[in-house]
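Weekly modeling sync, notes
Attendees: AB, CL, MP (scribe)

Item 1: holo prediction request
CL wants a bound-state model with magnesium ion before deciding which constructs to order. AB pointed out that an apo prediction alone won't tell us much about the pocket. Agreed to run with the ligand included and paste results into these notes for async review.

Input as submitted:
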Amino acid sequence: MKNSQKIILTGDRPTGNLHIGHYVGSIANRLALQQKGDFEKFYILIADTQALTDNAENVDKVKNNVIQVAIDYLAAGIDPDKVDIILQSQIPELAEMTMYFMNLVTVARLNRNPTVKEEIKQRGFSTSMPAGFLCYPVSQASDILAFGSTVVPVGEDQLPMLEQTREIVRSFHNTYNCDIFPMPTALLPENKACHRLVGIDGNAKMSKSLGNCIYLKDEPDIVKQKIMNAYTDPTHVKVSDPGHVEGNVVFAYLDAFCKDEHFKKFLPEYTNLDELKAHYSRGGLGDVKIKLFLNNILQELLTPIRAKRAELEKDVDKIYEMLLNNSKKASKVAGETLRKMKHAMGLDYEKFLKNK
Ligand code: ATP
Ligand code: MG
């Protein structure tokens, strides 16, 4: 099918507050797209059903984080007049679509998904893996396809999900001889350093489930404390020692967040990040100095977000109302997609009614 309209869909699991990895990996892209405004429709989905696939006993955690994530979006600058924030569990058509799609995907294929593989390892699932968890990439395909999405802004870990979705589109079209879904494409941040922000512990990915995050809502002293404790370079003991930039969390964050103008404001002895890196590598630049610089940059980003959050927290009802209203509308759109799917599959039984 030709992708004639630009429909954007992206989302997050409500397993915790959003962190700075989400900011650079996905929210910054969303804000830029929102600003550009060249789309037909823009959805952000809070994936509570998906979050339950590895949190079945923790419904309270997931439920409570729905509002937290919604507040994080709005505080970070998502404009509810331009973007529909929707709640997955309130759109039952998504689950029905997933049932049909699951028949087009093999268990072997699901087991090969590299992101899921890594997550299974992290969570220590061996024989205890819930079937729903293995299948969550299929439910993610439903989220994307239900709204005819063409552009999906994500971090790097989501590329296998997009590939799986594209395979489902091809398989559905071939199996049922139809052409109803546009082919979605992933949109990664331009800056490579933002594709997968490392955790403050040096772990490969900052992730809510690993607890190695700087959250958008963290108070200034907590942000500073986390930065001061961040993993840098164990061989860089004295200031005069040569340091390593590779694998150094502070430089990974500077790569993602630092712009030349930050030097003028906070560290005028240098003009850009390359100069700072060169000095660190040859020795004579201490960790405290680079950490304080990073702290200034992040505080500048997070201070207005925190202030907006405090305002939004005063009227949470309004946010719940928005979520429920948007989800009702989205359910109608997904219902129409489901109708087309069932028609393609021959499951529109009304046609057998004699008196029709
Ligand atoms: P969980 O640990 O529960 O899976 P998460 O921190 O991985 O949570 P998700 O809700 O799974 O967050 O991801 C939401 C979006 O944010 C995805 O597009 C994902 O690619 C992006 N994202 C998450 N973590 C990072 C990160 N560290 N760097 C860049 N992008 C990220
Ligand atoms: Mg994740």
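Recorded for review: The chain has two domains: 7-196+316-354, 220-310.
Action items: CL to compare against the apo run; MP to circulate these notes.
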